[in-house]
């Protein structure tokens, strides 16, 4: 089969790759119809490997060496393994991105996204940028009547929904999203669908346009002005009730901390690889809550994402930039996103 295979930094090859074996117990095999490109895929390509286990086996998946990337996918079921009765051949499904053990204390609490043996499709084991892939049936959900170009947004939207879960964005509160890439723009869209106004911050004009289409009422160019000052000016000097930091940049974290109001909430969604300065004294004295959000919990967030897309398919059409062929993955997908030229999600057509 044809697949996009990660071999190392700046070395993703569209090549022939062995077909997956017959699905094992609890697995389904998908003929992939659409696959999305995530910022994590771009980061692995541009500066990795950070997560792909090239040098030694992954502690949970056991995989070592080159692998098929891609953890956002929609596919048609073509085969089912023993014990699978929730799906039959022909069903169109979307899998979650990660696999958990189901037995540890965190899985028992329903926090499968922080399972001690968690691994991710397309990063720790072969993923969805291929013609076929085996995935656990337990993390897969039927897309109902959604078209593939809408359903492909379900997994990243689930991550965005996770990023706002528990921080009560509601009408009348000021919500700021820093970083308007795939997850950040979908977080804006999720707030917009709930009637919550947002302020979007990004250095990229293309991504700010994505934020505008997603519903951000005010857009701030962080390359031209101090974003925290602009946010405070827009809130009569009070600051933001909620700041979602989705850029992963140190400057984004500094902006978040300077823009949040007393008693406000900062949630980190982007991955910060560099040491970051934090004014912990201010956190304490002003009762500012700082917490994090990692990927999604399949049972909670994926059904909600599918329901939201069913009610508001415009979320997907707004977020979608372009559908490209697998052969154009590197120049028109990974490298275009790396340059900051993409105005939204770039999706790969497999079938």
Textual characterization of the structure:
By secondary structure, the protein is an alpha/beta fold. It has two domains: 2-156 and 296-349, Quinone Oxidoreductase, Chain A, domain 1 (Alpha-Beta Complex); 166-292, NAD(P)-binding Rossmann-like Domain (Rossmann fold, 3-Layer(aba) Sandwich), CATH 3.40.50. It has twelve helices and 18 strands. It has helices at residues 39-47, 105-108, 148-151, 154-164, 182-193, 205-214, 227-234, 250-259, 280-285, 298-311, 314-319, 329-339, and strands at 2-8, 11-16, 27-36, 67-68, 72-80, 92-95, 98-99, 119-120, 132-136, 140-142, 175-178, 198-202, 218-221, 240-245, 260-268, 289-292, 320-325, 345-349. Strands 3, 5, 6, 9, 10, 17 and 18 form a seven-stranded mixed sheet that branches. It has a six-stranded parallel sheet with strand order 13-12-11-14-15-16, sandwiched between helices. A three-stranded antiparallel sheet has the order 2-1-4, with no helix packed on it. Helix 1 crosses helix 12 (329-339) and helix 7 (227-234) runs parallel beside helix 8 (250-259). The longest helix is centred in the C-terminal third of the chain and has 14 residues, at 298-311. It is globular, with a radius of gyration of 20 Å. The chain starts with a strand and ends with a strand.
Q: Report the order of strands and helices.
A: EEEHEEEEHEEEHHEHEHEHEHEHEHHEHE
Largest sheet: 7 strands, mixed
Mean pLDDT: 95
State the CATH architecture of the largest domain. Answer: Alpha-Beta Complex
The level 1 CATH classification of the largest domain is Alpha Beta
Q: Please give the count of helices.
A: 12
CATH superfamily of the largest domain: Medium-chain alcohol dehydrogenases, catalytic domain
Low-confidence parts: none
Q: What is the gyration radius calculated from CA atoms?
A: 20 Å
Task: Work out the number of β strands.
Answer: 18
Number of domains: 2
End-to-end span in angstroms? Answer: 12 Å
Structural class: alpha/beta
SS strand fraction: 25-35%
Indicate the CATH topology of the largest domain: Quinone Oxidoreductase, Chain A, domain 1
Helical fraction equals 25-40%
Identify the overall geometry. Answer: globular
Quaternary status of these chains? single chain
């Amino acid at each position: 089969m044809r697949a996009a295979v990660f071999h190392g930094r700046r070395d993703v090859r569209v090549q022939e790759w062995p077909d997956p074996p017959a699905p094992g117990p609890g697995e389904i095999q998908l003929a992939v119809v659409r696959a999305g490109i995530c910022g994590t895929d771009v980061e692995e390509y541009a500066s990795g490997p950070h997560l792909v286990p090239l040098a030694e086996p992954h502690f949970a998946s056991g995989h070592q060496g080159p692998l098929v990337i891609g953890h956002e996918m929609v596919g048609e079921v073509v085969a089912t393994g023993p014990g699978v009765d929730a799906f039959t051949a022909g069903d169109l499904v979307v899998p979650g991105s990660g696999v958990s053990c189901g037995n540890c204390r965190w899985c028992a609490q329903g926090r499968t996204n922080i399972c001690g043996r968690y691994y991710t499709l397309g990063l720790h084991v072969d993923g969805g940028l291929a013609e076929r892939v085996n995935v656990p049936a337990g993390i897969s959900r039927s897309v109902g009547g959604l078209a593939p170009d809408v359903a492909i947004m379900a997994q990243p939207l689930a991550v965005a929904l996770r990023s706002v879960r528990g921080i009560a964005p509601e009408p009348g509160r000021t919500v700021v999203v820093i970083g308007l890439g795939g997850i950040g723009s979908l977080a804006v869209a999720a707030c917009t669908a709930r009637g919550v106004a947002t302020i979007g911050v990004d250095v990229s004009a293309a991504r700010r346009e994505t934020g505008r289409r997603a519903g951000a009422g005010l857009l701030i160019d962080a390359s031209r002005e101090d974003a925290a000052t602009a946010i405070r000016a827009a809130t009569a000097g009070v600051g933001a009730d909620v700041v979602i930091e989705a850029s992963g940049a140190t400057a984004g974290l500094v902006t978040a901390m300077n823009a949040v109001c007393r008693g406000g909430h900062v949630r980190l969604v982007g991955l910060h690889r560099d040491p970051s300065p934090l004014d912990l004294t201010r956190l304490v004295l002003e009762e500012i809550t700082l917490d994090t959000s990692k990927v999604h919990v399949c049972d909670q967030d994926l059904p909600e994402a599918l329901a939201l897309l069913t009610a508001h398919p415009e979320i997907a059409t707004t977020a979608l930039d372009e559908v490209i062929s697998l052969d154009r993955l590197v120049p028109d997908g990974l490298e275009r996103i790396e340059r900051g030229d993409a105005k939204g999600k770039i999706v790969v057509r497999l079938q």
